[in-house]
Amino acid sequence: MNTKLLSLITSGVLSAGSAIGLSGINALAITSLLSANSSPAYAQDADEQINVRVYQRAGPAVVSVIVGNGTGSGSIISPDGLVLTNAHVVQNTRRTVTVVLGDNRRFPADVIAFGNNGLDLAVLKIRGVTNLPTIRLARTGSIQVGQRAFAIGNPFGQFAGTFTVGIVSRIDRERGLIQTDAAINPGNSGGPLLNGQGELIGVNTAIFTNSRAGGNIGIGFAISVDRLQPFLAAVREGRAPRVTQRQQPRTANPPQDLAFNGVPVNDRLGPGDNILPVDNSFFKVYRFEGRAGQQVVIEMLSREIDPFLILIGPNRREIAQDDDSAGSKNARIAVTLPVSGTYLLIANSYQAGESGNFILRALAGGAGGRRNRLRVENLILQQEGVLGPGASVLSSDGSFYRMYNFQGRAGQSVTITLESADFDPYLALLGPDGEKLAENNNISPNDPNSALSVTLPRAGIYRAIVNTYQPGGRGRYLLTIR
User: Does 323 participate in catalysis according to the annotation?
Assistant: First the structure.
């Protein structure tokens, strides 16, 4: 939502969920004029109807939480005033905060519980209230990548009731996190992430940011409803901690420039760096100027931490992310840049609180030695990795595999190669609906590597499966898609 529209909504000139606020205007005359021009300006399409429905259902139960000079958001989950929010929103209070309802009523509330083991959750109890509107929790296990996601909150402590829309970009079931591109900013913390029925699927808890101002750069995180139920059960049974166990979230360090000259950058993650409050992990932000069509490889290597990389494009959309593709626990991203502009690279640790040294290496098309050299002609994806413990396991034969996604066009011809000196590669390609389009074990009787040449039947997300032909196979590989 642009700044002008946001200011119009908050000043009452425009009402949320409508095109124009008609109070004080001859609505009949305007409607007649629109009809005469045959313009369906007020007709809501299906998406608009869903947006309006979600906001109307959930909006009244979203509150602002005021703690001293700080603000956050929360969701009312019981008619008698239980409010779900983030631990980092209320961790510096002396147990009493102020809660502001959607109708601007203000009430004192007590902090009655915090998440265990550093889980960024807290529960408040509003004093002396009944019959409050509530948000229903979604069914556990119901969240899917690609589904619509809606956030409501009080960004920057000034725009209570702000509604933003995106999708579920990724689900990290191991850590109970939902990644979303719905706009989440400081002040949204503790507010709900919702599905199309207005049910709470997560508690918005953190963003990656590239400045001291703390603005969103396209990646937000929410604690999944799957982790909420055990926490709420502990609250009801009196087992939840009464004091927080979390570090203070911090995004103090500005981006550093990243050069694509093959010279390693030696750096360190640890105390004093940015802290991602969703899991208490440290991260640094780097930036570089990229060109549309440019091929880049970025590696993050460490013997002391588990590296994790995320690449953000100029439009603040995620381009790629990786955990272990550079072998061992090292991370590697190899992509073709879609547009020209300033890119941001997030160098993160996968585990909470990990400290240690790391090496960051960035190569552009044509740079580096034989193993790291990029062949730039028509490259869609080039990925080095390792099959072995830590990879997925195929249930039919117990062999290791990894899966890589790429966007394809109808009629596009692609060539996929899988090379390894350590194991007998097996390669398969799945279509947008999960159907197997092609597979290969050996290029020829004398070449055990795998290759496919396919004309894609339609537009969509395709999946290349890197597998070993023998169940016990393991080792390094290079996957190339052109």
Answer: no
In the residue annotation, 88 being an active-site residue is answered as yes
* 378/200 Cα distance (integer angstroms): 43
Catalytic one of 73, 88, 302, 323: 88
Residue 120 catalytic?
Answer: yes
pLDDT band per the 50, 70, 90 thresholds, residue 125: very high
| Residue 290: its H or E element | strand 281-290
pLDDT band at 378 (very low <50, low <70, confident <90, very high): low
Catalytic residue among 64, 120, 169, 306: 120
Domains within the chain, CATH numbers bracketed: 3-41 (no CATH), 44-245 (2.40.10.120), 256-379 (2.60.120.380), 383-481 (2.60.120.380)
Q: How far apart are CA 190 and CA 169, in angstroms?
A: 19
* Residue from 64, 169, 189, 302 carrying the catalytic annotation: 189
Q: Which two tokens stand for residue 182?
A: 């719905």
Could you tell me the pTM of the whole model? Answer: 0.54
Q: Which tens digits make up the pLDDT trace of 158-167?
A: 778 889 888 8
Q: Is 53 exposed, middle or buried (0-12, 13-18, 19+ CB in 10 A)?
A: middle
